[in-house]
Amino acid sequence: MTEGKTKTPHAIHLPGNELMGFAGLYTWWPDKTLPEDHADYWTLTATILTREAVGNVRQLHERTPVTLPPSFWDEWLDPDEEGDQSLVDAAVAAATPVAEALEFYPVDPLRGDGPELVDPAS
């Protein structure tokens, strides 16, 4: 949430702190300015797919990651699956009930890199 220019960080989770899986994509890009045998010739890039926010998280932002239910993980990760728009559409549809169930609470600004990051704001 943002009030004026001040942003309030939030911890977002599923009820019961269930494990969340996001729909992501990756690809390798060649740097054609380098020789093919150069150690930096290939660069790995990755992204998390987003969708219009639904449910309570709309209060925080208009977009949210595509949060896949465990029942869709195998299909999304199947290396033999054709990665086309119909798969993305199916992932977004499968993610809707998960996205609607997300819960959140405010946390303090960054103050470390451990589990204290999700302690409720003081």
UniProtKB/TrEMBL annotation:
Pfam families attached here?
SRAP
Does this entry carry the keyword Transmembrane?
Answer: no
Q: Which UniProt keywords apply?
A: Covalent protein-DNA linkage, DNA damage, DNA-binding, Hydrolase, Lyase, Protease
Q: Does the keyword Lyase apply?
A: yes
Which Enzyme Commission number(s) are listed?
A: 3.4.-.-
| Enzyme class, first EC level, given as a word | hydrolase
Q: Which family does it belong to?
A: Belongs to the SOS response-associated peptidase family.
Q: What protein am I looking at?
A: Abasic site processing protein
